[in-house]
């Protein structure tokens, strides 16, 4: 889905995307000291008294200020650099987004810097500080589950930010929204329509996977089904976790007839274990994955999966960042990204 950028009308009021960065002057004002004192506190803290250092640090934390690491040398008005943070670069879930983002940005004269944040907010905060300090022309984030400090850093930076693969009513700046609650709901209904009445869910322990799993369980109970058995595994999920997860699910309820997995790799593990257990797929056990990875179509039986168009996310994010860098604003700062269930042999 393409959203045309629009020029900001002269003299118009501030919009959600019209953000300015926190400066040394703002920190000095908040701390009640001079700008040179703030500079010393940040660059040579031993030259500042402990009391003054404490005041400056408190102001820095409250405002989310990050020093400009490029300020000491030759600096152009644009860096021609865009940073993207993804939880993992293993597997193929985010590969479509990264490929499309790279190609689209290169065509516009930008280079992409990729950071792997894992599923740890402290690690994400550290990466955000390093990235913001280099003042890229834009930041693309996977998800919206940022810490309070991370959210403050992003807001204070004044850098165009596109959050992706998640939904929120309070985006930092721009948002390519994916509803994981809607995905979980659709998964349970799909399996129910296939005649599966004793559903189970096997998910990673990250926030987005949990949103899908929780929604899946709620929908199943609303449909009048027994509450699905749930198991959570450390993210990113693996084939081995799929095998172990199915063993655990069957140990609790041997009658389960469908499993919704938070990744196709985990779903592949479930298929392997189902064969070991002598279960026929999909007659005895239907399996539904997420991500529509390459392995989904190449497995035997092939894996039914839920597809989110990562390439569309990458292209749209690039358009948003490039427009903002050119002084333009997207007509819609929040864009809904849909999903589709891809039926195959496993369900």
Summarize the structure.
The protein contains twelve helices and 14 strands.
Description:
InterPro entries: HTH_LacI, LacI/GalR-like_sensor, Lambda_DNA-bd_dom_sf, Peripla_BP_I. Pfam families: LacI, Peripla_BP_3. This is GntR family transcriptional regulator. With 347 residues, the protein is of the alpha/beta class. The protein has 3 domains: 24-71, lambda repressor-like DNA-binding domains (434 Repressor (Amino-terminal Domain), Orthogonal Bundle); 81-177 and 311-337, Rossmann fold (3-Layer(aba) Sandwich), CATH 3.40.50; 180-307, Response regulator (Rossmann fold, 3-Layer(aba) Sandwich). The protein has 12 helices and 14 strands. The chain has helices at 24-31, 35-43, 50-63, 95-107, 121-133, 148-157, 180-193, 207-222, 239-252, 264-276, 294-298, 310-325, and strands at residues 5-7, 81-86, 111-116, 138-142, 161-166, 174-177, 199-204, 229-233, 258-261, 286-290, 304-308, 328-330, 334-336, 339-342. It has a 6-stranded parallel β-sheet, with helices on both faces.
